[in-house]
Design goal:
This protein is α/β, with parallel strands linked by helices. The chain has a single domain, classed as Alpha-Beta Barrel (TIM Barrel). Helices cover 38% and strands 14% of the residues. The protein has an eight-stranded parallel β-barrel, surrounded by five helices. A two-stranded parallel ribbon has the order 6-8. It has a two-stranded antiparallel ribbon with strand order 9-10. Helix 9 crosses helix 12 (307-313). It is globular and about 60 Å long. The mean pLDDT is 94. Belongs to the glycosyl hydrolase 1 family.
Length: 486
């Protein structure tokens, strides 16, 4: 389904006319005001800052705030709740064509079970959408971005319980009713395949062991697939010309050597990681390889009558994804040196450098994964997260020279443009963390992504003052020239 003209007009162009340039954030990482306006607690609100967060994300921990032991940067974020007009004005100054943001489920339904939505939450997001439209910026809304009401996690065990399907649909219906006339582009679940690595964030429950062999993970994902498909059906009934996409973490998986065992091992992981969720949401059916996986791991899904028809009949309009790094794998021998990435890890790739946080940098991998996904589905793609987390230094005159970020983004945009020349239908690019925000993986402010610096530090100090980095002016020029200057 072609959303707009994605064909290049001439050989000298890198990006098509109408390309959606912009930035992306998530409510739980920028808004702050975590209990203001009758908002309820979310999963993100219980995640502490610093190194303990990674332990919290990977082990079974109490689903509560322990303020006497830990800090909670998400509670303040960057106070976008009060600064959204200023922030959107800065996005407009850069020339954003679109802005991807998320709505916090708990701002609309504090526990997730209410029958009547919270008007203060509706007013807040309505004001954001109106402000974007005033500046000619297309809103791109993520319905669920790691912001499940905590009550649903504690009461039902999150998406393990089928009850969440109806609660999610009630939430979606309210969003479509109130914002559908002004919002064309939607995504149901952020990084839905993150369930395999950090299920507490996306599914609302914690696990131990190998999540690729965990029945609860696959059952909860099934409930999300049904919920997403029903949301697509509902959105198409309620909103004219709506476009609703899926969203995954994407990364090519390289075998470390040409040993067939390494090749097969990398292939198996890539297929389950990159394509399992998309095969279901884009093709509308469970892939053939999943049957063997279920059988060998004693996974038997509870599938209600009609579920598969719902999934088959309501596939997505586009595939959105985050790209930060590639992964390299080898058949396990016990002596691997592993490196981290966006909720994933792999063995060290000797041909790549890494960021300060150990994420390997691989622009070529973006071109590879764009082609792999498009070759598989022939469905429009949308890069909705890509960026470099780094420590920025504010000079005495207030300037911030983040040439490392400019170089990172430039190389990735060149790779994306090459994929377009390869024939990939690419809708747009929203750089992740276009304004500094709280890191989802580490809970730090010092891991900065933005074009816009926010005076907020890991120790909680700061004024929330905004300032433009060097990359701000660079990205503005990129948008002005539709990427032809990179």
């Amino acid at each position: 389904m072609q959303l707009f003209n994605t064909k290049l007009l001439n050989e000298s162009e890198r990006f098509p006319e109408g390309f959606l340039w912009g930035g992306a954030t998530a409510a739980n990482q920028i808004e702050g005001a975590y209990l203001t306006g009758n908002k309820g607690l979310t999963i993100a609100d219980i995640l502490p800052g610093g190194k303990i967060r990674l332990e919290w994300l990977q082990d079974e921990r109490p689903l509560e705030i322990i303020a006497d032991k830990y800090t909670y940067p998400n509670h303040e974020g960057i106070n976008h709740y009060e600064h959204f007009k200023q922030d959107i004005a800065l996005f407009a100054e850069m020339g954003f064509k679109c802005y991807r943001f998320s709505i916090s489920w708990a701002r609309i339904f504090p526990t997730g079970e209410e029958l009547t939505p919270n008007q203060e939450g509706l007013d807040f997001y309505g004001n954001i959408i109106d402000e974007l439209i005033k500046h000619n910026i297309e809103p791109v809304v993520t319905i669920s971005h790691f912001e499940m009401p905590l009550y649903l996690a504690k009461t039902y065990g999150g998406w393990k319980d089928r009850k969440l399907i109806s609660l999610f649909l009630n939430y979606c219906e309210v969003l479509f009713k109130h914002f559908g006339k002004k919002v064309k582009y939607w995504m149901t679940f952020n990084e839905i395949n993150s369930a395999f690595m950090m299920p507490i964030m996306s599914l609302g429950f914690q696990t131990n062991g190998d999540n690729f062999k965990n029945k609860d993970i696959f059952q909860a994902l099934h409930h999300q697939f049904v919920a997403s498909s029903l949301a697509i059906k509902l959105g198409r009934e309620m909103i004219k010309s709506v476009k609703i996409g899926s969203m995954v973490i994407a990364a090519p998986f390289y075998p470390l050597t040409c040993n067939p065992k390494d090749i097969l091992y990398a292939f198996d992981i890539e297929r389950m990681w990159n394509f399992y969720c998309s095969d279901i949401q884009v093709r509308g059916e469970y892939p053939s390889y999943s049957q063997r996986h279920f059988k060998e791991n004693n996974i038997e899904l509870e599938i209600a009558p009609g579920d598969l028809d719902i999934i088959r009949s309501n596939t997505v309009d586009y595939i959105a994804f985050s790209y930060y790094n590639s992964c390299t794998e080898k058949h396990p021998s016990g002596d691997e040196v592993r490196v981290g990435g966006n909720m994933m890890s792999g063995v060290e790739n000797p041909y790549l450098t890494a960021s300060e946080w150990g994420w390997e940098i691989d622009p070529t991998g973006l071109r590879i994964i764009l082609n792999k996904i498009y070759d598989r589905y022939k469905t429009p793609l949308f890069i909705v997260e890509n960026g470099l987390g780094a420590k920025d230094t504010v000079k005495a005159d207030g300037s911030i020279d983040d040439d490392y970020r400019i170089e990172y983004l430039k190389e990735h945009l060149i790779a994306a443009s090459e994929a377009i020349k390869d024939g990939v239908e690419l809708m747009g690019y929203t750089m992740w963390g276009c304004i500094d925000l709280v890191s989802a993986s580490t809970g730090q402010m010092s891991k900065r992504y933005g074009f816009i610096y926010v005076d907020k530090q890991d120790d909680g100090s700061g004024t929330f003052a905004r300032s433009r980095k060097k990359s701000f002016y660079w990205y503005k020029e990129v948008i002005t020239q539709n990427g032809n200057n990179i």
